[in-house]
Amino acid sequence: MNFTRRNRALAPIGCGLALLLGSLSLPARAAELPFEQPFAFIYTTDIEEEGEGELEQWLGWKQGHGHNGSRAFQSRTELEYGITDDLQGALYLNYDWSRSRHDGQDDRDSFVGVSAEVIYRLLDARKDPIGLALYFEPSWNAKERELEAKLLLQKNFLNNTLRFAFNINVEDAWDRDEGHWNEGSMLEFRAGLAYVLSPQWCLGAELSNEHEFEGLIFGGSSREKTSAYFAGPTLQFASELITVTLSAQAQLPWADSPSHISNALEHGFVAGAERYRVLLRIGTEM
Questions:
Q1: How much is the pTM?
Q2: 113 neighbors 139 (Cβ within 8 angstroms)
Q3: Neighbours of 3 (CB within 10 A)
Q4: Nearest of 281, 224, 269, 227 to residue 39 by alpha carbon
Q5: Which of 164, 196, 208, 270 could in theory staple to 230 by disulfide, Cβ–Cβ 3.0 to 4.6 A?
Q6: Residue with more model confidence, 110 or 128
Q7: Closest by CA position to 76, among listed 59, 53, 89
C-alpha cells in the first residue's frame, strides 16, 4: 500500500479521534442512558453500577481465511458485576471451534478456556466532557495464553442519543504448538458511532484497524507482520428483560504487510485473517 492510500484508510479513525478530542470543551448533558453497550466489537465507558450484574451470551462466526478456506465459531458466556460505580469485574467461559483446509486435508480444532475482566472508569461520559476507562483481561486455555489491555474513550452528543467510542487495544499471546510456545501480539484501533432510533432500537457503525506482530509488545521485541481493516453495521434491541446486539463486518481491501512477508496478502486482503465475521450478543440483567 502506498503512503497516500494508507493515509486515506486511516482517515475515518483519525477524524473520529479528532472529533472526540475537539469536543473536550463542550459540557456533557446528563440524561438517562438508554443503551449501555450499543457496540459489538467496541467497549464504551458505560459500565454496571455498584451491586448490579448482567449475564451475557456471545456467539461469533468467522469465514474466509484467504486461500485455506477456514471457518471458526466462538462462544463466550459472561457474568459481569459492578463492584463500585466506577469498577466492573467479569468472568468468561470461552469455547472456540475452527476448521481449515490445507492441500485437500481438513484440520479441526476445539478448546475451552476462561477469561477475567476488569474495567476501571476514570471519567464518566454522562457527567464529564468525555468518558475514559482502563480495561484489563487475561485469558487461558490448554493451547493459548493471552494478556490484553485497552484504553476506552467515549463522547456523548444530543442528550446521550448519539455516542462516539474509540478503543486502543494491545494484546500479547502465547500459542502452544507441539510443545513449543510461539509468541505474537496485536495492536488494534477501533472507532464507532451509535444513534438511538427509539427506546428499543439503536443503530451503529464500527471500524477497526488491526495490526498483527511477531513477538511480544509488552516487555519484548516485535515485528509488524500485517495490517487489516474491518467495517460494518451494528443493530441493538433492548427491552426490560433482554438486550440483543448483532454486528456483521467485512475485511476491507486496504491491507498492508510492513515486513513484506511472502504470501501475507491476497488481492489487498490479509490472507491469514477472516474476510467476514458476525457477532451476536444476548444479555439479561441479574
A1: 0.85
A2: yes
A3: 7
A4: 281
A5: 208
A6: 128
A7: 59
Distances (CA, A) of 221 to 109, 169, 274: 29, 18, 26
Which three cell numbers mark 65?
Answer: 481465511
CB atoms near residue 126 (< 10 Å): 17
CATH architecture assigned to 3-24+41-285: Beta Barrel (2.40)
pLDDT digits (tens, 9 = 90+) for 235-265: 999 998 999 999 999 999 999 999 999 889 9
Please give the angle made by the CA atoms of 127, 133 and 135, to the nearest 5 degrees. Answer: 155
For the chain, what's the residue count?
286
- What CA–CA distance (Å, rounded) separates 252 from 69? 18
Contact of 54 with 35, CB cutoff 8 Å: no
**Whether 70 contacts 99, CB under 8 Å:** yes
